[in-house]
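CO-FOLDING WORKSHEET

Operator: S.A.
Ligand of interest: zinc ion
Run index: 274
Mode: holo prediction, single chain
Checklist:
[x] sequence pasted
[x] SMILES validated
[ ] output reviewed
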Amino acid sequence: MPELPDIVLLAESMNQALVGKTIHQVQVNQPKVLNRTIPTFKNNVQGRTFQNFQQRGKWLLSRLDNDWTLAFNLGMGGELRIHWSVETPDPNRERVVFYFNDGDQLWVHFWWFGHIHLIKPGKVQDHPQVGILGEEPLCDDFTVNKLASMLEGKRGRIKSYLLDQRFIAGIGNVYVQDILWHAELHPNRKSNTLRSDDIKKLHHAIQHVLKEGIRWGPGPGEQDVWGTRGQWGKQPGWPHIAYRTEKPCPTCQTLVEELRVGSTTSYICPKCQK
Ligand SMILES: [Zn+2]
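OUTPUT RECEIVED:
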């Protein structure tokens, strides 16, 4: 499932490839991925132009020139891909196809979940999933003090808070591994036992790891709108610990261990993350 860095890279590529393109026609092959009826969707989307694309949590938001917003959620294994006019989409694979005036096409493939929601002008904050998203961890107002106050009185495991989209938006089970390793925190650590030094390190780790993801990504299985893959596992030292069971910790050479925390798997260095 794409996380913040993957969506940032996808949005950047879509800004380059699709802004200014006018949607001539939309073909909906799987109506349940929409939050509107097909006629309402088409009435508000056909003839409109993409203004911009931006990441919000694990969602990709696109504003149209009528101020409606298209909110894409790729679920797991989803793809948004640009294709040339000569190509023909497979209606059993592509859930929705956008045809542009210049002949280009945007194919939307979902594998496990995936949504395209059309949101009325000015109503993004009222959307049941986008409106409840928490802090954007790369925004200027996400400071150490803010993180400290967010964690105040929280008694659960630190990993659970990092994955909670209402708390911080955009982190999932891929990038959280390196974040906890950088911060030298065990995923089961109780949040209210973090001292101010720990919070400072965690804040730095969140921003550092997400920026690394943007630099070397997209992450495993993810691609931008042209189908470009990232350097996952190829760029030496990236990732540091995520999905590297039995490989040495880059700091102390202890072998990385895999453990189950709640319903997710964690990868830890048992020496660095006590
Ligand atoms: Zn280590």
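REVIEW:
Strands lie at 23-28, 50-56, 59-64, 69-73, 79-83, 94-100, 105-109, 115-119, 257-261, 264-268.
The two ends are 28 Å apart (CA to CA).
[x] output reviewed
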